[in-house]
Amino acid sequence: MKHDSLPVETCSTMQDVRRHIDAIDATLVPLLAQRQGYVAQAARIKQDLNQVVDEARIEFIVARVRQLAAQQGLSPEVAERTWRAMIASYIDFEHQEFKRLRGMA
Fold it and tell me: What pTM was estimated for this model as a whole?
C-alpha cells in the first residue's frame, strides 16, 4: 500500500498539536466553502427536489474517498464516516437552497 500522506511534525506539547490542527482547519474551511458553492449550483441545475439525493453517487464518492484515504495513510473508516456526515450536511443545505431558489421555503 502506497502512502503519499503529508508530513506530520512531531509535537512535544498540546499547544503544538492544537496549533497544527488549527492551521489545517484554516485550510479546510475555504475548501468546504468552495464545495458548498458547487452544491448550490447543483441545487440551481437540478429540476426536481427528488434529484438532490443520489445514492449511487454517494456510494461512488465514499468508495473513491476510502481508496484515496488508504493511499494517504488516513484510516478508510475515518474517511468514510467523515464524508458520510459531510454529504448529509450538504444534502440538507442543497434541499434548503433548492427550495429557496424556487420560493418554496
Answer: 0.90
Distance of CA 66 to the CA centre of its chain: 13
Taking only Cα atoms into account, the Rg of the chain, rounded to an integer number of angstroms, comes to 17
Place of cell 434541499: 95
DSSP alpha helices (H): ranges in 11-75?
Answer: 14-45, 55-72
58 burial via Cβ count (<10 Å: 0-12, 13-18, 19+): middle
Q: Which residues of 68-92 are buried (b: 16+ CB within 10 A; e: fewer)?
A: ebeeeebebeebbeebeeebeebee
**pLDDT at residue 1 in the model:** 46
Scan for cell 506530520, then name that residue.
8
Element (H, E) at 3: none
CA distance 20 to 17: 5
Q: What does the pLDDT read at residue 2? A: 54
